[in-house]
Design goal:
Shape: globular
Structural class: alpha/beta
Number of domains: 2
CATH architecture of the largest domain: 3-Layer(bba) Sandwich
CATH class of the largest domain: Alpha Beta
Distance between the termini: 109 Å
CATH topology of the largest domain: FAD/NAD(P)-binding domain
Number of strands: 26
Bound molecules: flavin-adenine dinucleotide
Length: 483
Amino acid sequence: MPQSATATAEKSAATPKPKPRKVPRIVILGGGTVGLYTARRLKKRLGNREAAIVVVDPRPYMTYAPFLPEAAAGSIDPRNVVAPHRRALKGIDVLQGKVSEIHHAERRVQITPEEGEPYWITYDHLVVGLGSVARTLPIPGLAEEAIGFKNVEEAIAVRNHVLNRIEIASSTWDPELRRRMLTFVFVGGGFAGIEALAELEDIARYNVSHYRQIEQDELRFVLVEGSPRILPEVSEELGGYTLEQLRKRNIEIHLSTFLNSCVDGHVVLSNRVEFDAETIVWTAGVKANPVLQQSDLPLDQMGRLICNAYLQVTEADGTVVPDAYGAGDCAAVPDLYNPGKFCPPNAQHALREGNHLGDNLARVLRSAELTEYKHKNIGAVASLGMYKGVAQMFGRIKVRGFLAWVLHRTYHVFAMPTVNRKLRIMAGWTGSVLLRREVVPLGTLHDPRAEFRAAAVPAKPRVVQPPADDPAITKKPARKTAG
Ligand SMILES: Cc1cc2nc3c(=O)[nH]c(=O)nc-3n(C[C@H](O)[C@H](O)[C@H](O)COP(=O)(O)OP(=O)(O)OC[C@H]3O[C@@H](n4cnc5c(N)ncnc54)[C@H](O)[C@@H]3O)c2cc1C
């Protein structure tokens, strides 16, 4: 039975309610895929007269993560895989800051801005689209040595790091150091990990072809995956094909293997393989944003918001929590096409859930009946470097190689928000086909003040060490005095 939010019993009658506003305020936590699409759909349906929409996010842009591997490979300018909020959310209030607490019973959230004191804002309806963070394990050395691949900052850092290691390796004859610099480890064989690994290996090989001092076979790319297969999102056959392609590219693959430790870059795998590596990229899955633990909203065992198919937040017994909605990676939304299962954490669902949530909330404000979110997975597409890819569409159609790569680009460019970004991405692709990809390593980008700092520090007076036989400092042996 469709449920209207107004029909559900108020849970917290005793708690003070905010003063009535002229129009209801909808606060959207997170301006990522869910947040951006919900806000845009709401604006389209309601305009500014029926609701005041506020989006809260510490970043001033939404990141289209499926393009991060291509951004790292230099096929897309990293600035074009993000949609700036101020342009994509015209007419919508955007607050830059982190949500640090959610007191839904009092209809208020605390926001911690980058600078200044935390403050509270109240709302009438809450949308939670806070996404996920990397799921890590307490592995010795992981926090110090590894980097994630979840946002554009990390993708740029990994790219510059890889290209810079190649540059460093080219300037040393120390075989140990060269080996360490040219070894790149990726942990996690899901979509994000495989695409990141394949794209970076592709660009690294292309880059090395410009170096006379480095041979291709000095590059060592290693994949570590805990389960016996990769790409669980596609069929075993297609996963097997991908493995075969990666092996043909001399990528070393360790399946059913775990990273045991990586202290000081010394990698130890559970199959007793050990080596040194300067680059360890962690892409072994995600978990719901931990800030949800600082809320009074009901969470499941995995820390996700419990939601129904109307995208309303519910208690574990299914009772609707009034005025609270959730979607995307941070929410457990039932998958109506796979009874008993939840929608997987991917952009395909997040984007559609965002649009659906916008429609449903507009219905709530107009006291209309809500509709259930129902989406049949249309498939999965992955890019494995320039002109290479795998795709599985509608469950049965399997595509490989160049055609899959074209499908990947076509599908994602359509899903990328704003016409401006779509055009820029397509222009970038054309540029990189005609002029080749850019491989300049901008390693110093990550510490731009280093040179200035060194120049600004007052020079210490040069201390000249006098020669050891200088009579002024030569210590005379202590004369033994006769007793
Ligand atoms: C490398 C990579 C490749 C991927 N490839 C694919 C693919 O090919 N196909 C596919 O379908 N999916 C893919 N995904 C998954 C997909 O990107 C996510 O499932 C999707 O973005 C989830 O949307 P979301 O809105 O839930 O979260 P997000 O889009 O991550 O948005 C969450 C937002 O919340 C904000 N936020 C975080 N903490 C706070 C806070 N405390 N307060 C306020 N705001 C906060 C974040 O800044 C962010 O803007 C990929 C993911 C990655 C990392």
